# Entry
Amino acid sequence: MNNSLNNNNSKVKLNNSKGNKNIIIITIILLLSLTFLILFIVFTNNNQENNNNNNNNKEENNKPLTELEKKLIELENINEKLDFFKEEYIDRYIEYKNNNPNLDLEKVIIYVNIGLDQEFYSKNYPSPNQNTNKVLTNKFYSLSKDYVPNNLETIDSNFSSGNKQMVKEAKEAFEQMAKDAKTEGYNIRAVSTYRSYQYQENLYSNYVKADGTEKADTYSARAGSSEHQTGLAVDVDNITLSYTSFGKTKEYEWMQQNAYKYGFILRYTKEAEFITGYKEEPWHYRYVGIEIATYIQNNPMTYEEYFVRFLDK
Ligand SMILES: [Zn+2]
# Structure
């Protein structure tokens, strides 16, 4: 009997402790539910705020883009990166880019600035930087009939084929170069230097008579467009071979390594025919000064590209 009473008591106790546990579990569940509810409300609110913000942004973005902005986007906003980007050329850039879809965008800008989206000789601007080492003369920029550079001087006859003139600074640089080459056993001789407008006119018209305009234009400049009129250009030979074979001589190799040290660049290369409009001329060098020549030696490019990047602003 006692035993059964005891048993009943302990059952009651057991029931009581079970009840307590249930209450605790229910409380925990309620607390958890409440926490989740709060978290849910906070989360939903945040989302709504974000959505509102997004909508606000959309409203701002929905302001219609200007024509200029649309065009700049088409050009990947490259104007922000290139200080020689010209807004007035924007339609030409886009057209050139579309016509040359595989061309690097920076090149698109440079080539249009040079004028390559237009036919050679279709535009005729006065040569910039006249009477300086930085003058640019090509199939878009030309010198007038009466342009004669200042300070023309005659080259030492030891280094020329006789009575050849260049602008003083270029002449002195050429003589130093030819002298240093000679010391090392190389013959660099000036065979054509300054040429007047009239001389070039005559020369070009004879080539046209012989070969026709289209062909003559690939190797001879029209009057006003010749670098020889600047007094800064020189055609060279090695005395033994014609200047047209200069590219095959050891002197040419020497010039490749050394001409820039004296301020000369090779002006018309094979790679750049489409930029200069001339077939390669391994014999034609142009004085631009040591600083520019060194830059171009280290970063091979035409003088047109150099001009567009650094001088045409
Ligand atoms: Zn030449």
